[in-house]
User: Fold GDP-L-fucose synthase from Trametes coccinea.
Amino acid sequence: MSVILVTGGTGLVGKAIQHIIETEPEGSRFGKRPGEKWVFIGSSEADLRNQEQSKKLFEKYKPTHVIHLAALVGGLFINMKKKLDFLRDNILINDNVLHNAHELGCKKVISCLSTCVYPDKVDYPLDETKIHLGLPHESNFGYAHAKRLVDVQNHAYKDQFGDNFTSAIPTNVFGPHDNFDLESAHVLPALMHKCYLAKKNNTPFVVWGSGKPLRQFIYSRDLAKLFIWMLREYDDVEPLILSVGEDEEVSIKQAADAVVKAMGFTGEYRFDTTKADGQFRKPASNKKLLSLIGEFEFTPFDKALEETVQWFQQNYENARIGKSQ
Assistant:
């Protein structure tokens, strides 16, 4: 019997993994396998910063495998304001998960990192060899250093004990169950929520910045399949970038246009170029992933965005939207 524990199981990626496990045919490439029990836990079940609660959680479920998604996350502003919280909370969470997985003799742990772990000054495209080649961006150094340490810990556990601990580095994830709170949401869910409110209130849809920056977006349900594939087939300690290709970059304007179309928004729509654009592009290479996985079909961006918009409209009242607008 395999018991796969998914920490952060109630968030964007956790919900996507649950969706794939429940909807793909049993025994198929990404479906549930006979003899597998999947457990999705959120912070209400255990505070993973707490050593005792973490230990009790692992003793309760006795996982054989762990997909570790739990983290203290937030947007740019809160990262800048609470650098120590983001550093310390994430170090505690990650240390408790990896330590308990080791103590229980888990066969495998995959932890989720982020492209923000990369150095601020780096040659593009990003790849798996460049994580530690310089300091991360000042704005999120607490979070970035804590996440980098997971890679350090994975190597240390492997070197000292032979543990099969590794990590995944997704690019910009979006999909159902995302955080749509305008105070802290990432760019795509923020655009969806803004457009939804503009349509509802008959006001202009104003996108901050020029719309020119480029991003690689990965649909949460595609990412979920990649995590399941990693769990079953990837046994290297080195991290793996999970992303669409560099040729799949989408401009913020293209993304906003797609949101307008999916929402059926017909009102005034413009860009506020007095607002900052942020980094123009930070492409990541998925060559290593493609060399290992073989056949894999990513959901076209417009289709994935349309599905997410539909989910958001149907679940608006129960979605993470922050203070009601």
